[in-house]
Design brief:
Layout: H1 2-15, H2 22-30, H3 34-49, E1 52-61, H4 93-101, E2 110-113, H5 123-136, E3 141-144, H6 147-157, H7 161-171, E4 175-176, H8 186-193, H9 199-211, E5 215-222, H10 228-245, E6 248-255, H11 271-284, E7 290-291, H12 295-298, H13 300-305, E8 313-318, H14 338-346, E9 351-354
Parallel strand pairs: 1-2, 1-8, 1-9, 2-3, 4-5, 5-6, 6-7
Length: about 375
């Protein structure tokens, strides 16, 4: 009876668009039945986005997997002095040009650029890469460099974050991806990502970017050694920044995958936990408009199922251009045609809409 009363109270609060407290968010994780969460997350999702679901035509470019940080969850990383024989790569601008030339103009709307934090690269490298991409494919939206990469650029070049961001924007940067957030709790971050830019730096990069007119996304790596309270703390910090700036377009929960990394002893969470996490995120993050299921991490079947748990975006075509999750146990060759994504969305009774990187609708197919 007490559980039913609390669920009824929270259901009424959600219906009236009142903000959930951290304690109430934690309750949703620990006590709310999954069917109830599904129902409420769908209500919120449909008030925002009706029966529509988004996708885009994108590719990734990962310049290098050489990295100064040895995060325990990362199967992608190779130490800075690694060779090709060790599984390392360090692509040139010419390699990038060949990749882009294989896609006719009009076949893509976005390129997503993230990679390892190379020890020798400062903001000058980021500027050069942005200018190069814009010089050969000016029509593409350039979403590039995690907050961790940008903070290292600034440190390496002896400039502050604002100057680094201004220079990247002037060079052609259009927005910032959400990677590198992991979990903000300092003790958990120390365990899984020792040495990486701390939470306050990640948040500051995004807040400064928003102030300069650059929008961004946000992520949360879950399902490793964190607890529910630490997930709520993570989302609360994002919610607070969003209250101040309004610059986050999308929240992207990322499930920990356990192949080929230093935490491989940990089991992965199951599908019910994934779906619970999406539903709680949709209910708690009342000020971030979009909730994305990144199918290249989750697999398309489960990402499609998440459309019934608050999700309104499946990301894009990807076209086997990312190895960050495939190396850790995600889909081996992540690629999806427009038709495939449209059919996945329709299979849940949703209306597929192609979007640009700002979630402006490009068609009504």
């Amino acid at each position: 009876m007490i559980l039913e009363q609390e669920l009824a109270r929270l259901g009424e609060k959600i219906l009236e668009k009142q903000r959930l407290t951290p304690e109430e968010g934690l309750f949703l994780y620990t006590d709310a039945p999954l069917p109830w969460l599904k129902n409420k997350a769908v209500e919120v999702r449909e008030k925002r986005h009706a029966n529509e679901a988004y996708y885009n035509r994108n590719i990734h470019f990962e310049p290098t997997n050489l990295c100064v940080y040895a995060c325990k969850f990362c199967a992608f990383y190779r130490p800075p002095k690694s060779s090709e024989a060790d599984g390392a790569w360090d692509y040139s601008f010419e390699d990038l040009q060949k990749k882009l030339e294989s896609y006719p103009v009009g076949s893509l709307t976005e390129i997503h650029v993230t990679g390892g934090v190379h020890p020798d690269r400062g903001v000058e490298y980021g500027e050069a890469l942005c200018r190069f991409i814009k010089s050969i494919r000016p029509e593409l939206h350039l979403k590039a460099f995690t907050a961790v990469e940008i903070s290292y650029f600034a440190k390496k070049s002896h400039v502050d974050l604002k100057e680094a961001l201004q220079r990247l924007k002037q060079a052609g940067l259009d927005s910032i991806p959400g990677g590198g957030a992991e979990i903000f709790d300092p003790e958990i971050r120390k365990v899984i990502a020792g040495g990486k830019a701390p939470a306050h730096t990640w948040l500051e990069v995004h807040e400064r970017a928003h102030e300069l007119g650059l929008f961004s996304n946000a992520t949360m790596l879950y399902g490793h050694v964190e607890n529910y309270g630490q997930r709520i703390d993570h989302m609360l910090r994002l919610r607070d920044v969003q209250d101040r700036t309004g610059g986050f377009k999308s929240f992207i929960p990322l499930r920990y995958r356990n192949e080929s990394n230093a935490l491989s002893r940990l089991p992965e969470v199951g599908p019910e936990e994934d779906l619970r996490n999406y539903a709680v995120a949709r209910l708690f993050l009342d000020n971030i408009p979009h909730l994305k299921a990144y199918w290249a991490m989750l697999g398309l079947a489960l990402a499609t199922e998440a459309l019934d748990y608050g999700v309104d975006d499946l990301d894009g075509t990807v076209d086997d251009t990312t190895r960050i999750y495939s190396m850790a146990g995600g889909p081996a060759h992540p690629t999806a045609s427009v038709e495939f994504l449209q059919n996945a969305i329709r299979s849940k009774g949703r209306i597929p809409l192609e979007r640009d990187s700002q979630y402006r609708k490009l068609n009504f197919s």
